[in-house]
Amino acid sequence: MATTGQQNRQGQQQQGVQPNKTMEKRKPVFVKDRAASRNLRQTRIAERLVGDETGTILFTARNDQVDLMKPGDTVIFRNAKIDMFKGSMRLAVDKWGRIEVTDPANFVVKEDNNLSLVEYELVSVADE
């Protein structure tokens, strides 16, 4: 329901509010929440060189992933993704992905094709 200016002023006067009088502004209060920072856990990060018969790439392991793999293990990455870090590719598995240690594989890793050593540069292409 819409009210006119006259009805609004009458309502304010009945409630004890003076019309056209500015309200006093309060100063902001800033506080530091140190309790939350104490409960934060440190992120563990390690890089592992992983590969298959086509080449190798650096895998960035985070937190619990750090302890999953040992040198020589065969692993399966599900829903892995590529992250760009300082112009080079890194393999990563986020919360939607999965890492499984499995039986040894029957292939030879192609170690001379490390995709993480290739530097990429972002190039903008103008629309024509």
From TrEMBL:
Residues 1-27 are annotated as: Disordered. Residues 1-18 have a biased composition (Low complexity). It comes from the Eukaryota. InterPro entries: NA-bd_OB-fold, OB_Ssb-like. Residues 32-101 form the Single-stranded DNA binding protein Ssb-like OB fold domain. This is Single-stranded DNA binding protein Ssb-like OB fold domain-containing protein. It comes from Hibiscus sabdariffa (roselle).
